[in-house]
Design a protein that fits this description.
This protein is mostly helical. It has nine helices and five strands. Helix 2 crosses helix 4 and helix 6 (141-151) packs across helix 7.
Length: 214
């Protein structure tokens, strides 16, 4: 885990931690992990404890003494590090609690995944609402033609449009909810051998047109 957060040549900042903990605290954590690795390589680390000075930290991270104190306090509060004054003269020693960081990252990842899933579902619901709104709009003849060609149903798009246009895009007494569904209803009507109610309506409509010479 630690190799994801630090490097001897540069500081690697975990973006997820930076968003949740704060950039300065995560920069300091990355620097401390680099310093810990240095003492591990030298073989001088004792039970996970190592020292670092404010001057060294400022040189490596550009964090001022005040910024360091705030960042250290934050890291201690969330349980990422422990600090202690050791030696003569006393110097500030640090201990990185890797298990706490690992647990935090795993928990945070799960929470982020849940939030992302929730956003995805919300976006899908929005897409469905938008699609439904589009379906509720009165279609153009060209839209009907394209849909009929897509379904290869042989329906006369202009006849379909004229029929429902004359009825104010009502199905019975109700406003049409989805014109595509109405097209599919016409498909079923074409497949039936018996005369349906919509056949009668269409025949009456065509007869009326002929009578008026349209």
């Amino acid at each position: 885990m630690k190799h994801l957060l630090s490097s001897t040549a540069y500081l690697v900042v975990n973006k997820q931690l930076a968003r949740q903990v704060g950039l300065k605290a995560v920069v300091l954590l990355a620097d401390l992990i680099s310093k810990e690795n240095y003492f591990i390589i030298k073989g001088t680390i004792k039970e996970g404890w190592f020292f670092n000075t404010s001057k060294n930290i400022e040189r490596d991270t550009t964090l001022t003494n005040y910024q360091q104190k705030k960042a250290i306090k934050k890291l201690e509060e969330i349980g990422f590090i422990e600090t202690s004054l050791k030696g003569m003269p006393a110097t500030l020693h640090f201990k990185i609690l890797e298990n706490k960081i690992s647990t935090y990252l795993k928990t945070s990842f799960k929470e982020t995944s849940k939030q992302d899933l929730k956003k995805l579902k919300t976006n899908k619901n929005k897409e469905i609402i938008i699609t439904n709104k589009n379906n509720n709009k009165k279609p153009s003849v060209e839209e009907i033609k394209d849909y009929c060609l897509e379904r290869n149903n042989g329906i006369d798009a202009e006849q379909f449009f004229d029929f429902y246009e004359s009825k104010g895009w009502l199905v019975g007494k109700n406003k049409m909810k989805c014109w595509r569904a109405a097209v599919r209803t016409w498909e079923k009507r074409k497949q039936k051998t018996t005369t349906s109610k919509i056949d009668q309506q269409l025949d009456n409509y065509n007869n009326a047109k002929k009578h008026l010479g349209l």
